[in-house]
Specification:
The protein contains ten helices and twelve strands. With 276 residues, the chain is of the alpha/beta class. The chain folds into two domains: 203 residues, Alpha-Beta Complex (2-enoyl-CoA Hydratase, Chain A, domain 1); 47 residues, no CATH class. It has a six-stranded mixed beta sheet, with helices on both faces. A hairpin with a 2-residue loop joins β3 and β4. The longest helix is centred in the middle third of the chain and has 22 residues. The radius of gyration is 21 Å and the shape is globular. The termini are far apart. The N terminus is likely disordered.
């Protein structure tokens, strides 16, 4: 909770405001987006999806950003999915769900199409919609005690196309269906085997290792990172490359960053890229 004292108010009285549900922190070129409802294990609400959508799109348009880290507040959970206590007012029937869905799906698409690399810092529980968010990140680092799954069959709910797109990308149709059909929650080692996470570390090292990964990305050439994201995504499309798409792979040679990196390599010094 944030406590704010108005200069006109009696100093013995305070106005208590709830903390934002989405926090944004910046450390130079690294942005950290925090799902901030630790008292609810960071369960997502309709307002959180709107804020998350706005935040990711804002960062996507910012050329000074080189890496985005997404995490949950605290160390108990990345996120358990949507807050079920909100269903009665926002998802309790088909009509309400049709209004809720596009808001959530827009945020997920913002993450999926973000041009900057994304790192998921996963503490504790990462299930349902929380896993949907994490699965859209490019690198996913979790602790040994982290738990994963999509137990929506126990709620009589289907996972929508946008919600499962990340799982389909990283784990494939068979593993995705296994998770949806069984609704089982499992541990970090199995998640690594299923390619749901890219790295498992000790619980105490999750934050450090995720930020080291983000720093490695941020220290690289940012235009190249964006091209690599684009090229990998394009490679999933079976359609032949157009002449323009083929030629784009040579655009890096026309950048200042190439000259910086090339000359730094010859001089045996660390390059400092400008993103041009």
């Amino acid at each position: 909770m944030n406590t704010h004292v108005s200069p006109q108010a009696d100093p013995r009285q305070t106005c208590v405001q709830p903390a934002p549900e989405i926090l944004l922190q910046r450390d130079a070129s690294i942005a950290t987006v925090i799902l901030n409802r630790p008292e609810k294990l960071n369960a997502t609400t309709l307002s959180m999806w709107k804020l998350l959508d706005d935040t990711i799109r804002q960062l996507d348009a910012d050329d000074s950003v080189r890496c985005i880290v997404i995490r949950g507040a605290g160390t108990k959970a990345f996120g358990p999915g949507n807050d079920i206590s909100e269903f009665e007012t926002h998802r309790g029937n088909q009509e309400l769900a049709r209004r809720y869905g596009p808001v959530m799906h827009s945020a997920l698409r913002a993450i999926a199409h973000c041009r900057h690399p994304l790192v998921a810092m996963i503490h504790g529980i990462c299930v349902g919609g929380g896993l949907g968010i994490a699965s859209l990140c490019n690198i996913r680092i979790c602790g040994q005690s982290s738990r994963f799954g999509v137990p929506v069959n126990k709620l009589g709910l289907a996972m929508s196309h946008d919600e499962m797109s990340g799982l389909m990308r990283i784990a494939g149709p068979d593993v995705t269906l296994e998770m949806l059909l069984e609704g089982r929650v499992f541990g970090a080692d199995e998640a690594l085997h299923k390619r749901i996470v890219t790295r498992v570390v000790s619980d105490a090292d999750v934050q450090e290792q995720a930020m080291i990964s983000a720093r490695r990305i941020a220290d690289g050439a940012p235009l190249v990172a964006r091209w690599h994201k684009q090229f990998v995504q394009r490679s999933l499309d079976p359609a032949p490359l157009t002449a323009e798409e083929y030629d784009e792979a040579f655009d890096c040679f026309a950048t200042e960053d190439f000259q910086i990196g090339y000359q730094a390599f010859l001089a045996k010094r660390t390059p400092v890229f400008g993103g041009k």
